[in-house]
């Protein structure tokens, strides 16, 4: 398996560390209800199809990368730096 | 028997070798199979279950029968296919699964009991009584059934792994592969041409046919000569592509030294390659398939294509009198070649009534072989014509052909499903089954040489265009373009003897029908019930025929019955090659501190701490045990001064205008208020609220911090910090990098620590220049370093850091100065005692399931700011009296020692799981307090301080009453560290 790091190019997957679905980057706001935290920490979709995961280029440039991959074909359709995404919306804030 | 003037082996270079203890001679270019066949050897081994004598079936890597063991002792390699192994002067091969020899095998009595060994026999026959299974039946079956055996010795041979990259990987060097490589090579693409045989050319070496007006083998040699001149083409012989994986990655096994009598010292036996190819062309050809007829497994029954390979390539006639049995035109080619070479052909038996005889052959059209004769080698075959008339035909070799199955395995490795093509009665690949991979030639179900050449060329042109390269002109040579006609024919019915499908695993048509009868109708179930296709050849010779029999037995068509999943590896791979470099010390990287050599010289046993090696203790003459050394070293620190290498702790340099703000986010407590020159202890949580790590962080200057992590969590914390920075605050001005290996850092601890340091610092320090939890730049013997006033022992303590290249020298110097002061070096054992006495936690305590509340540090979670893990840590159940809380445990005086892992119970309660009150994480003998001490977690523990609990360890047979105490056993006010 090969992953294209936006900074380093296509590299063997052994250079990367996997860290699950990219929703983990959407951290709930301070004071969010326990259910929101539970959802954020533990509940994940398990699609047969496109999924966006987090990978860490640990043996490379230390970038965290969002990798869009198809769980059926294993085809990787897109990669981008986690730092490049728009500021995430905070879920579950208690106003 | 060799035929004069035939074949491509080098008749001028004889090569001696041994098989089953006897000396033989072959020629350079021979495989073990061809050389033994030439010498008249017929029995190569014994079959898996029934110990039937077995010969050679094929001339390639798919060989199911001729499996041998090579080498002796630890270098013994079982299940080597004699059809692949080249002969050399040091080759010492043996037949397998026979005792005492393949010719006299006493275990052959299994064959007489064959009714008991039918499909699923081990599920049925030996079910009762159950306890006999493990003790009696299974060991007995395992002894009697099987293939080669492992040496059970440590393999000292050298294996390697390697990576390669290319534009185009061409798998297979027959007509299609050669054309593809030639076209791509001329166009300037980076090409790897991989061929599992030791000579390139594929079927062109085995057939009598012309390409471009010259013998096929000569044309192949010409193409290879041109390819060899191209710097952009890498020719890899003896290299089997074993698997197709994601992203254009292919596994490959290269046999590097197995064919050499005296391989150079640095040459590996095998090399496992990972080849990354932008495009790939699969030109792996096809496997000829046997026909199932009664007693079709006798030595001398051989694939027709293999007979031609031995004849045309190796100049060997596999028999004196050959009969041919087939269902297709290709079988007729065998008759033609044999007769041209002067070998007697006794009959051509073609199941097709409409078949016409080639020149001068005795044709039995519409007949079938219904039995064979000759236990250790074929003597005659019994045939029945359309009317049932029986004829006995003398022959010592029967060439059989049931048609050809495309070798499409690699195309199916990513779960693509092949489709059935009726006119060739075979599965063929569909386009796009592996992204970037095209299939050409016989692997695609295209069988004429002319069409194979054309498909190879077209596939290369398509790949070049996808790669953005212009194809150069390549002429398509003229070659044989005959039609391949066959009538699907899988088994001869009605015989009373067994008819083999899987020769390697001894699976017969009867087994498959029995599986169907017992309702194992799915091809995957049938496979597992009968073990069909589960031998080293992975069913290459037999799977399609077996599912044809299953389809017939279940009244379905072959496409509906489907085929089992194709999985890597395509050929067996030795684990030694897959794990090359990973044996012994190579299993994991080793990290050594700058003081490593000095510790080893002092006789310290080095213990693993993650990938690091650290000294356990420093023995001295007269020590009764490690405990004497440990107690002494604890005494150094408590009474004098001790020195310990702490460089393995993670050091992360964090800089930027927002660095303080960033630390506030990752630590539970506040760091943005930390002043330059000051150090603070910090607690870090995971986002789920559990403690991740702890350590000190120093403010070196405005916007410049140095974080310390535990040795164990250094990698995890680095990963975490990078994540938090990139996910949650990408716009902040904060940057970080690991500096663990750049700095050597030594703890100097004990009442005399300052006195020691002041003997080597250029500017002496006192309690004011570097106060408790302070940091300052220092110069030590001309080297710029850092001095931290921190303590993991509870004593007056410093840690001095210098660039790593000065570490070895500074360590020796520090230890010498400590010894002059009555102290010395201390190791991990003493370090552990010192920290337990002080109730300091390690990852024994923060093991991933404890919260800040559990370890009594809930006060460190700042109410004034958010931090990672804070939100989740407020969830119900993560704090409160029901939690197991960290406490100290002190056995009542006179108790035996206690061990980590013990569990805690109420004093009067039975020590069983339902009464469990907690567990012990760390223990030590404290020479300071003259007592065993323990740290552990106890339900509502803080409220139970002053009470007693029962500590039970069922494994170590410990049962001790302990007093529950505050976890800080020694100097709870901390006055010693503050000095
Ligand atoms: Zn990178």
From TrEMBL, chain A:
Pfam families: SoxD. It comes from Albidovulum denitrificans. GO terms for biological process: tetrahydrofolate metabolic process. GO terms for molecular function: sarcosine oxidase activity. It comes from the Bacteria. This is Sarcosine oxidase subunit delta.
UniProtKB/TrEMBL annotation, chain B:
Gene3D superfamilies: 2Fe-2S iron-sulphur cluster binding domain, sarcosine oxidase, alpha subunit, N-terminal domain (3.10.20.440), BFD-like [2Fe-2S]-binding domain (1.10.10.1100), FAD/NAD(P)-binding domain (3.50.50.60), Probable tRNA modification gtpase trme, domain 1 (3.30.1360.120). GO terms for molecular function: sarcosine oxidase activity. Transmembrane segments: none annotated. This is Sarcosine oxidase subunit alpha. SUPFAM superfamilies: Aminomethyltransferase beta-barrel domain, FAD/NAD(P)-binding domain, Folate-binding domain. Keywords: Oxidoreductase. Residues 496-581 form the SoxA A3 domain. Residues 596-865 form the GCVT N-terminal domain. GO terms for biological process: tetrahydrofolate metabolic process. Belongs to the GcvT family. The keyword Chloroplast does not apply. Residues 885-971 form the Aminomethyltransferase C-terminal domain.
């Amino acid at each position: 398996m090969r992953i294209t790091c936006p900074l380093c190019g296509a590299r063997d997957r052994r250079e990367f560390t996997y860290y699950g679905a990219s929703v983990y980057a959407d951290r709930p706001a301070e004071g969010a209800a326990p259910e929101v935290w539970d959802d954020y920490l533990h509940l994940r979709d398990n699609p047969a199809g496109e999924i966006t995961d987090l990978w860490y280029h640990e043996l490379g440039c230390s970038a965290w990368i969002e990798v869009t991959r198809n769980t059926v074909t294993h085809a990787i359709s897109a990669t981008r730096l986690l730092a490049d995404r728009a500021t995430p919306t905070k879920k579950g804030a208690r106003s | 028997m060799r035929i004069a003037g035939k074949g491509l082996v080098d008749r001028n270079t004889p090569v001696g070798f041994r098989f089953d203890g006897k000396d033989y001679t072959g020629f350079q270019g021979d495989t073990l199979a061809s050389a033994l066949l030439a010498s008249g050897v017929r029995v190569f081994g014994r079959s898996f279950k029934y110990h039937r004598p077995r010969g050679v079936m094929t001339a390639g890597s798919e060989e199911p029968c001729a499996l041998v063991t090579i080498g002796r002792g630890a270098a013994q390699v079982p299940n080597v296919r004699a059809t692949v192994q080249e002969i050399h002067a040091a080759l010492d091969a043996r037949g397998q699964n026979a005792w005492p020899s393949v010719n006299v095998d006493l275990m052959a009595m299994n064959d007489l009991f064959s009714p008991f060994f039918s499909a699923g026999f081990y599920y049925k026959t030996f079910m009762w009584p159950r306890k006999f299974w493990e003790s009696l039946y299974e060991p007995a079956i395992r002894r009697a059934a099987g293939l080669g055996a492992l040496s059970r010795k440590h393999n000292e041979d050298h294996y390697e792994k390697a990576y390669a990259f290319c534009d185009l990987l061409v798998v297979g060097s027959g007509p299609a592969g050669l054309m593809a490589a030639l076209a791509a090579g001329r166009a300037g693409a980076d090409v790897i041409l991989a061929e599992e045989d030791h000579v390139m050319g594929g079927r062109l070496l085995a057939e009598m046919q012309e390409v471009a007006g010259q013998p096929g083998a000569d044309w192949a040699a010409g193409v290879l000569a041109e390819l060899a001149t191209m710097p952009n083409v890498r020719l890899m012989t003896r290299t089997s592509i074993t698997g197709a994986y994601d992203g254009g990655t292919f596994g490959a096994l290269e046999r590097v030294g197995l064919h050499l009598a005296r391989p150079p010292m640095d040459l590996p036996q095998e090399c496992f390659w990972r080849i990354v190819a932008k495009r790939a062309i699969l030109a792996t050809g096809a496997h000829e398939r046997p026909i199932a007829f009664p007693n079709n497994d006798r030595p001398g029954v051989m694939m027709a294509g293999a007979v031609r390979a031995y004849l045309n390539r190796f100049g060997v006639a596999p028999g004196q009198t050959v009969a041919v049995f087939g269902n297709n035109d290709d079988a007729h080619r065998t008759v033609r070649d044999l007769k041209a070479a002067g070998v007697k052909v006794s009959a051509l038996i073609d199941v097709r009534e409409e078949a016409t005889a080639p020149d001068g052959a005795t044709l039995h059209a519409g007949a079938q072989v219904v039995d064979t004769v000759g236990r250790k080698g074929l003597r005659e075959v019994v045939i029945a014509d359309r009317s049932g008339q029986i004829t006995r035909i003398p022959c010592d070799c029967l060439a059989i052909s049931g048609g050809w199955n495309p070798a499409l395995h690699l195309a199916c490795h990513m779960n693509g499903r092949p489709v059935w093509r009726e006119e060739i009665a075979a599965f063929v690949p569909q386009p796009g089954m592996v992204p970037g991979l095209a299939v050409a030639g016989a692997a695609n179900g295209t069988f004429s040489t002319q069409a194979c050449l054309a498909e190879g060329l077209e596939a290369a042109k398509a790949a070049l265009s996808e790669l953005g390269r212009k194809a150069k002109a390549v002429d398509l040579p003229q070659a044989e373009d005959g039609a391949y006609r066959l009538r699907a024919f899988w088994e001869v019915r009605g015989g009373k003897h067994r008819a083999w499908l899987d020769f390697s695993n001894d699976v017969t048509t009867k087994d498959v029908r029995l599986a169907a009868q017992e309702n194992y109708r799915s091809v995957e179930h049938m496979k597992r019930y009968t073990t069909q296709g589960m031998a080293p050849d992975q069913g290459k010779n037999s799977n399609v025929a077996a599912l044809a029999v299953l389809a017939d037995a279940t009244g379905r068509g072959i496409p509906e019955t489907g085929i089992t999943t194709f999985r890597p590896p395509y050929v067996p791979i030795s684990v030694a090659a897959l794990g090359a470099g990973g044996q012994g010390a190579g299993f994991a990287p080793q990290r050594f501190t700058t003081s490593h050599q000095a510790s080893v010289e002092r006789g310290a046993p080095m213990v693993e701490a993650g990938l690091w090696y650290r000294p356990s203790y420093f023995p001295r003459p007269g020590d009764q045990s490690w405990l004497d050394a440990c107690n002494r070293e604890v005494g150094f620190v408590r009474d004098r001064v001790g020195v310990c290498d702490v460089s393995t702790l993670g050091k992360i340099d964090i800089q930027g205008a927002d660095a303080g703000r960033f630390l506030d986010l990752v630590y539970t407590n506040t760091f943005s208020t930390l002043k330059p020159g000051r150090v603070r202890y910090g607690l870090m949580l995971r986002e789920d609220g559990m403690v991740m790590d702890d350590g000190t962080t120093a403010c070196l200057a405005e916007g410049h911090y140095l974080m310390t992590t535990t040795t164990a969590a250094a990698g995890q914390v680095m990963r975490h910090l990078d994540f938090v920075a990139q996910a949650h605050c990408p716009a902040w001005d904060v940057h970080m990098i690991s500096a663990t290996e750049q700095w050597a850092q030594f703890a100097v601890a004990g009442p005399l620590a300052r006195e020691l340091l002041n003997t080597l610092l250029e500017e002496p320090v006192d309690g004011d220049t570097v106060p408790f939890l302070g940091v300052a730049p220092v110069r030590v013997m001309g080297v710029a370093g850092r001095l931290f006033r921190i303590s993991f022992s509870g004593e007056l303590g410093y840690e001095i850091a210098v660039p790593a290249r000065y570490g070895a020298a500074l360590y020796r110097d520090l230890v010498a100065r400590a010894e002059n002061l009555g102290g010395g070096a201390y190791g991990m054992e003493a370090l552990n005692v010192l920290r337990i006495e002080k109730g300091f936690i390690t990852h024994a305590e923060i093991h991933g399931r404890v919260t800040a509340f559990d370890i009594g540090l809930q006060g460190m979670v700042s109410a004034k700011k958010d931090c990672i893990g804070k939100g989740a840590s407020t969830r119900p159940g993560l704090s409160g009296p029901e939690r197991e809380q960290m406490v100290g445990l002190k056995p009542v005086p006179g108790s035996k020692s206690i061990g980590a892992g013990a569990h805690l119970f109420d004093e009067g309660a039975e020590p069983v799981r339902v009464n469990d009150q907690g567990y012990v994480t760390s223990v030590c003998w404290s020479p300071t307090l003259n007592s065993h001490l323990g740290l552990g977690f106890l339900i509502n523990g803080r409220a139970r301080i002053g009470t007693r609990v029962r500590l039970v360890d069922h494994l170590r047979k410990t049962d001790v009453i302990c007093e529950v105490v505050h976890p800080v056993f020694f100097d709870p006010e901390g006055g010693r560290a503050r000095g």
